[in-house]
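Q: What does the predicted 3D structure of Reverse transcriptase Ty1/copia-type domain-containing protein look like?
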Amino acid sequence: MKWMIDVSFAVHPDFKSHTSGTLSFGGGADQVMSKKQKLNSRSSMEEELIAVDNVVTMILWTKLFMEWQGYPIEKNILYQDNKSAILLEENGRKCAGKRSRAINICYFFITDQVEKGNVKVKYCPTDDMIADFMTKPL
């Protein structure tokens, strides 16, 4: 399973960001979500963490659903285009700098899932990010 999650930072009139996510099993988008985030943050890196927190339940539920249907999931990959967010997701608080110390601990749930082997986080360049199409205003 390949998940792509992306954020458009502060694009709404109240300066809230927009999250989008897509799931692909190889070709096309099998599951898609796009929604306005419920809170503001100070940086796009924080918004990426919030976006992953918003989508992580779908990621884990879909993996469990597919396995219960008899389809073992060997790779559950989450692609993002923000390298700072990837570092925080993989390493948790230990790589948080001065500006990221105030990030709420609930946004490090993904770190727990990475350590358990339920999901792997990888970098995807912005130009290849399919989820990017659903975060931009027309």
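A (community wiki): The structure tokens above were generated from the sequence. The first strand starts at residue 2 and ends at 8. Helices lie at 44-68, 83-91, 109-116.
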